[in-house]
Specification:
Number of strands: 2
Number of helices: 7
Distance between the termini: 13 Å
Strand order of the largest sheet: 1-2
Radius of gyration: 19 Å
Structural class: mainly alpha
Strand content: under 5%
Largest sheet: 2 strands, parallel
Length: 158
């Protein structure tokens, strides 16, 4: 792949990343569908790891499949693009960098939710979001491996 084409792909990754961040901000702080328009009277938080995860799994029948899916898998899926895009847009990438960046972004989101009282601070969300970021990184590594393998195959044909 030429240097020009690599720059274009990297720029596309940055644009997609920016669009994703805008979506993330909207979804986490503004979206009416997810109940983000009301500000709570009190601070809401969970500092006990696995408390909310356990609650959602224990009361899955009462809460409904959608609520369980939205909370548990949704927290993972919403951060998977972050792990992918940060790796795609960055020259220096790696598992631990993605892990740390995903955890710090999630912590930042949870702190903003705590102080603005839109949503709640939940350590389980930090864990699930971080897992999502790491899964996004793994998808990036697989896609990058396929791309490189394809690139080498095309180069040999010439």
């Amino acid at each position: 792949m030429s240097a020009r084409k690599a720059k274009i792909i990297r720029a596309l990754g940055k644009v997609l990343f920016l669009l994703y961040v805008i979506f993330l901000i909207y979804f986490l702080f503004v979206a009416e569908w997810y109940g983000r328009t009301e500000v709570a009277e009190e601070y809401r938080y969970n500092l006990e790891l696995f408390r909310e995860i356990r609650r959602f799994l224990t009361y899955r029948e009462e809460l409904g499949t959608f609520a369980v899916f939205a909370n548990l898998l949704g927290n993972i899926l919403i951060f998977a693009p972050y792990g992918f895009f940060i790796s795609m847009a960055s020259r220096s990438r790696g598992f631990f960098k993605t892990l740390l960046c995903s955890m710090l972004l999630s912590l930042g989101v949870e702190i903003v939710q705590l102080f603005t009282r839109v949503g709640s601070f939940d350590v389980d969300d930090i864990l699930l979001n971080t897992i999502g970021g790491v899964l996004g990184y793994i998808v990036f590594v697989i896609c990058n491996w396929i791309r490189r393998k394809h690139h080498v195959r095309n180069r040999k044909k010439r």
